[in-house]
Amino acid sequence: MKISQLSESTGASIRSIRHYEKKNLITASRLENGYRDFDESAVDRIKTIQLYLGLGFTTNQIEEMINCVDTHFKNEIDELCDEALDAYEGKLAEINRQISNLGVVQHRLKKQINQMKQR
Q1: pLDDT digits (tens, 9 = 90+) for 61-119
Q2: Where are the alpha helices (DSSP H) in the chain?
Q3: Which of 9, 10, 68, 89 has its CA 20 to 30 A from that of 3?
């Protein structure tokens, strides 16, 4: 399928699809005219990429997870699930730290606003 069709099927912009290809998250063959030709598996791959992006992972982290699964046999997937769990837990810890830091900033801003209003 052409890149425009893949974009329509997934909701991902053509620019994003090109970026995913550049980051080795998806692959395409080339037609004689030079156009990209994606197979049907690219739809699921992009939906997976979008899921990971929605969870806050970077494309570099996504590349590690996706390409790791692609290169291992089915019986090794359980170990990979443990690695994915570690990545998820690490991401959650990072988000919790960010929330905590934002709470501190929020408190300081409220305090400053109240002081300014009292003047």
Answers
A1: 888 787 665 555 555 555 556 677 788 888 899 999 999 999 999 999 999 999 999 98
A2: 3-10, 14-22, 41-54, 59-71, 77-118
A3: 68
What DSSP designation does 72 have?
A: S
Strand (E) or helix (H) holding 37: strand 36-37
Backbone angles phi, psi at 30, to 5 degrees: -115, 135
Beta bridge partners of 29: 37
**Residues 6 or more apart from 10 whose CB is under 8 A from it?**
17, 43, 46, 47, 50
Please give the model's pTM, rounded to 2 decimal places.
0.68
Give whole-number Cα distances, 22 to 18, 39, 63, 72, 81, in Å.
6, 17, 11, 22, 26
